[in-house]
Amino acid sequence: MKRILITGASGGVATLIRPLLRADYRLRLSDRLPVPDPVDGEEVVEADLGDLPALRKAVAGVDGIVHLGGYSVEADWETIQAANIVGCNNLFEAARLEGVKRIVFASSNHAVGFYPRSQTIGIDAPVRPDTRYGLSKAFGEALAALHAYKYGAEVLSIRIGNVGEKPLDRRRLAIWLSPRDLVQLIGIGLEHPDIRHEIVFGMSDNDRAWWDNSNAFRLGYRPMDRSEDFAAAVLAADDGKSGDDRVDLNQGGGFCIAEKM
Ligand code: 15L
Q: 1, 65, 96, 250: which one has the fewest Cβ atoms less than 10 Å from its Cβ?
């Protein structure tokens, strides 16, 4: 069984997908915070993304990396810079120095959050970040391309919508990603034989989507979950009107006006 490193292993997304990934991989878990409830067979390696030597130890000997670590919402520049710019660069550097080629990078829909919901975009649309956080994810995608084409890394950047057991609100009906569909995309990133640097949107089979996910389908993605199954309950609870058009009409929603969260 291959061994993979999951960074940001204490976070909510990692906690949702660890049980599913364990079926196919031996997991090494890293975070700067304690990792909740490691089970037999899971290895925990504490590492701060700011600490390159510690990251090299975390990365050494794995077959692939799922980089979920970093800051996951909008914040001041110092926070974003440390976690998502310097931290992401350190992770890719650690992988390069330790000879680990395969990386799945958790990018975000907020790299393109300022596209209107009336427009369907593909991966060829220029980035349009809605936050410093989204900007840092665009940086991560560009860093992935640098490492792929210059140093031979093999990277899948997943522009994740919103991961959870179900869509939380009207906006999330368009961008929801179930844990098992995320795990399917991660599997493609770790196993597909022809990946140099690819970008896909991380969403389930969502009728209300505003993303063209044909690159994911080309790579073999077949989502199993549909946000529409939850639509009636979600629409009854949320009219989608915040009173601010920047929030209600843009894909990034509340991130489009956020300075801190
Ligand atoms: C993200 O990128 C965040 O990490 C997550 O917390 C959600 O807020 C999500 O985007 C979203 O757009 O709903």
A: 1
Catalytic residue among 115, 133, 149, 151: 133
pTM: 0.98
108 closest CA partner among 79, 144, 82, 134: 134
Element containing residue 247 per DSSP (H, E) = helix 245-249
CA angle 130/131/135 to nearest 5° reads 95
Average pLDDT, the chain: 98
123 φ, ψ (degrees, to nearest 5)? -75, -10
Task: Assign 62 to helix, strand or coil.
Answer: coil
Residue closest to 107 by CA, chosen among 199, 238, 169, 29: 199
Examine the residue annotation and report whether 71 is marked as an active-site residue of this protein: no
Amino acid found at 129: P
Give the bridge partners for 29, in sequence order.
Answer: 6, 44
**Rounded distance, CA 43 to CA 45, Å?**
7
- List, for residues 46-62, the tens digit of each pLDDT value: 999 999 999 999 999 99
Q: What is the CA 55 to chain-centroid distance, rounded?
A: 19
The reply to whether ligand 1 has any atom less than 6 angstroms from the CB of 250 is no
- For residue 206, report the distance from its CA to the centre of ligand 1, in Å: 17
**Residue 162, ligand 1, Cβ within 6 A:** yes
Strands 64-67 vs 3-7: parallel, antiparallel or unpaired: parallel
